[in-house]
Every structure is written in C-alpha cells, then in structure tokens.
Amino acid sequence: MSQAAAEARFVLPPGSEATAPPEARGLARDEVRMAVVTQERTHHRQARELPLWLEPGDLLVVNTSATLPSALEVERHGCTWGLHVSAELDDGAWVVELRRPDRTAPGRPEPGEVLRLPGGVRLRIAEPHPAGQTRLWQATALPAVDRVAYLRRHGTPIRYPYLHGAWPIEDLQNVYAAVPGSAEMPSAGRPLSREVLVDLMSLGVVVAPLVLHTGVASQESHEPPQPEWLSVPVSTARLVNVTRAAGGRVVAVGTTVVRALETAASPEGAVAPYDGWTSLVLSSARPARAVSGLLTGLHEPEASHLDLLEAVAGQALVDRAYADVTTPGAPHYLWHEFGDSMLLLP
Questions:
Q1: Where in the sequence is the domain holding 134, given as residue range(s)?
Q2: Which of 97, 183, 89, 184 is nearest to 144 (CA)?
Q3: pTM of the model
Q4: Which of 202, 211, 222, 346 has its CA 20 to 30 A from that of 283?
Q5: In the chain, where does DSSP find H-type helix?
C-alpha cells in the first residue's frame, strides 16, 4: 500500500453501496449526487448541475469506449466457474480472469490448461499477463473467434456481489459509448445525460473524445492498474493543447481519461496523438501534467485509484473531499458504477 493511499483511508458509512442503477431508485442518470470539491469547500449538488461549474473555454474529455458483456461460464474440474475477459492483445490473445464457482474471488488456472467455453470454443491458458501476478492470464481461443461478436452472443455483463439483480448491458453504457472494447463500464461518465452534454456545449464548453478500453476492475487491494489499450485522436490532442495555452481547464471524465491523456502528455503537459498500450501509474509522485480537473465516481478506501485522484487534485484536497462525503451528518453518497459522482476542481 502506498503512503498516499494509506493517508487517504476513510470509512464508508453503512449502506453506501449502490446496489442498482439510479433509474431503479426513481432517479434519472443525471440526478445522482455530485460533490463539487474546490479549494474553498465541498458543495453537494447533482450531476445535472455540471454546466454551472465549468466555464466557456474549458474542455471536457470523455471516454467513448463501449462496455462488452464480458462474463462467461466455463466448465472446469466438473463444475461451472466464471471467466471475465479483460482485454484482447495485439496478437489476438485474450487476457482473462478466472472466477471461483461462487464468483466471489479470483481462481488460479494452470499454465497449459484448456477451458471449455460456450459455443464449442476452447481456451488454452498460457501465462500470467502482466508478469508478476497470478490473477490475470494470457489465453488463446481455439478456434480463433472475434472477441466482440463472441461476447455479444455468449457473454453477460460482469456483476459483483454488491449488485441486487442482473442488469442488462444497456444499463452499463454511457450515452456517448461508441467503440466496443471495455470489460466494465467507464462509469464516471454514466451520470452525463444528452441534455447535460448539450447544455455544456451551448455554454461554450468543448467536449472531446478519446478511447481507453477498461479491463476488469476486481484488483487485489492496492494492486496497480493493469495495462490498457487507448487512442487519443489528433483532434483531441490539439484541443487539449489549445485549451491549456488559452488558460482553460482540461477536465477529464473518469480516471481512464486521466490515464489516457497523461500517457500521451510530454513532461511539459503537451499532448500528442497516441495509439497503443499504457502501463502508466499516476500518483503524487507522478502528478498530472495535462489534466486540471476530474469528474469521477467514488472509490473505496483501499483502491489504487485514490493515488490517481491525488495526482490531479493533491492529497489534501482528496482527503478533505472524502471526509466531507463520509462524516456523520453529510449527505448520503453511494459508491460503485451506479453510484454518485465527485467533481474535483483544484
């Protein structure tokens, strides 16, 4: 555990897990809470009020990766196990996470083992990917199949025990999702409705896209982020640089956008077009260079994402932000992909 993560530790109030989409709780996606954290104080608002906190000339960068139904059932040792397909490598191999029959924890496959997948496909396990851990493994589908088409036919959305009920893949998409590839939803953008995006653009806030395909999020405590594939287009790189030069703010929607932009950024913060993989780990030791604000979901006290938040906003602001949403008497915020939001404006 990093020192930053340890010092940012807090205690979740009881009942803080969002167990269903906000629509199932009678809310529109843009009616979830949004804690707006500035240097002066924390304001308790709703996500639909985001346009009130940005200014003409600011740039909002979103991740247009779409979520795939990336959970499969596999036959192993005479019973049914779970399998999460996290990513596809450049050579067509898959990166997978085996889940125990009760789905509550990762399992550990054996190198060379062949798993039986739906539709007559076999999956041969090769080696850990990346090296140095045993949760994620490189594997080859036999025969070779198109991952997107295969998962859309045979997969279901990845689901963790805190969720009540099985929710369709449509509930796990952002309104601007366009490029299929994420194992799990880049959920920071879920509260952004089309109406909010139109309001932002009508006020002179530019919205720009990039793509980062997220892998499975079930890391062990303080496990660093896994390698992920991203694409920063020429137009978005140019907009970031123009915005910074004009004194505007570059506000990322989600930690995925921060990771993508910072991977493509020079030491001076200039962003160049980028297509490829990233293993970048951001923290107070490697602060953000191009990003100056962040709209994010709420992260658990042991999550490595807190280091990334500190890379953008600084440890003091992040510590105060989480204190302001977890102390007794604070408005009740909800965690996870169907939960509430935090806007960090350092």
A1: 71-154
A2: 89
A3: 0.94
A4: 211
A5: 3-7, 147-154, 194-202, 234-245, 255-263, 305-313, 315-326
Query: For 135-160, how does the pLDDT look when each residue is reduced to its tens digit (9 = 90+)?
Result: 999 999 999 999 999 999 999 999 98
DSSP state of 32: S
Q: What is the pLDDT of residue 218?
A: 65
* 263 domain-assigned: yes
Q: Is 123 within 8 Å of 95 (Cβ atoms)?
A: no
Helix (H, G, I), strand (E, B) or coil at 209: strand
H/E element holding 165?
none
**Which of 154, 180, 208 is a domain's end point?**
154
Domain boundary (154, 176, 207) is at: 154
Q: Is residue 159 part of a domain?
A: no
Question: Phi first, then psi: what are they for 224, rounded to 5°?
Answer: -70, 160
Write phi, then psi, for 238 (nearest 5 degrees): -65, -45
Whether residues 17 and 40 share a domain: the answer is: yes
Span 334-342, mean pLDDT?
Answer: 97
For residue range 13-32, list pLDDT tens digits in order: 899 999 999 999 999 999 99
CB 330 within 8 A of CB 324: yes
